[in-house]
Specification:
It contains five helices and six strands; from the N terminus they run E-E-E-H-H-E-H-H-E-H-E. It is an alpha/beta fold and 162 residues long. The protein has a three-stranded antiparallel β-sheet with strand order 1-2-3, covered by helices on one side. The chain is globular and about 45 Å long.
Length: 162
């Protein structure tokens, strides 16, 4: 059983879902009726996620709560790599693929990015196309543009890896 909470963000409402293992979904927009936690552990994961979102939207790099990421082995590998991209920095799909030891897998990285269940906290918005073009984003390109601009305005300076 999972708990579902709402968070009001500058992008609109976010839905945060958590299990006893951690946060398993963070979606832009309201999704379903809120459900209270059924255990103290789930409650803590929800509270940690809400605190991380408060930090993020206040311009601070959030402490990532426990995550319950559900996907294929490759998708989880990509999502773990996304967590290594620092606040205010970007990587290209090709760079992420190369860091995973899979050069030439940029499209597969893009597909895994699009299935990221914990957007914002697992920062798929920090992955851009070669040359800095935005590429896609499940929450829409305006949301991706806003998130990148938000981080750039709060980071000491926007650093792009080489």
């Amino acid at each position: 059983m999972t708990a579902l909470a709402r968070f009001r963000s500058p992008l609109g409402p976010l839905s945060v879902e958590a299990s006893d293992e951690g946060v398993c979904a963070l979606l832009l927009g309201a999704s379903g009726a809120a459900r209270p936690p059924v255990s103290a552990l789930t409650r803590r994961h929800v509270e940690d996620a809400l605190a991380a979102l408060e930090d993020y939207f206040a311009g601070r790099a959030p402490r990532i709560p426990a995550l319950d990421l559900r996907g294929s082995a490759f998708e989880r590998e990509v999502w773990e790599e996304l967590l290594r991209i620092p606040f205010g920095e970007t990587r290209t799909y090709g760079e992420v693929a190369a860091r995973l030891g899979r050069p030439g897998a940029a499209r597969a990285v893009g597909s895994a990015n699009g299935r990221n269940p914990v957007a914002v906290l697992v920062p798929c918005h920090r992955v851009v196309q070669a040359g800095g073009r935005l590429g896609g984003y499940a929450g829409g390109l305006e949301a991706k543009r806003w998130l990148l601009a938000h981080e750039a305005s709060h980071a000491p300076l926007l650093r792009v890896s080489r």
